[in-house]
Design goal:
There is one protein chain. It is built from one helix and no strands. The protein is mainly α and 37 residues long. It has one domain.
Length: 37
């Protein structure tokens, strides 16, 4: 399948990569909340 369908890059990554990104974002969110609340 051609990947040049105008989709965002995130739509082409593996489930493991999405999970890793979610974990990174969660850690950043928790760090921000801890430091600002």
């Amino acid at each position: 399948m051609d990947k040049s369908l105008g989709l965002h890059a995130i739509e082409h990554v593996s489930r493991d990569e999405i999970t890793a990104l979610q974990l990174t974002r969660l850690k950043e969110t928790l760090h921000n909340a801890y430091n600002n609340v």
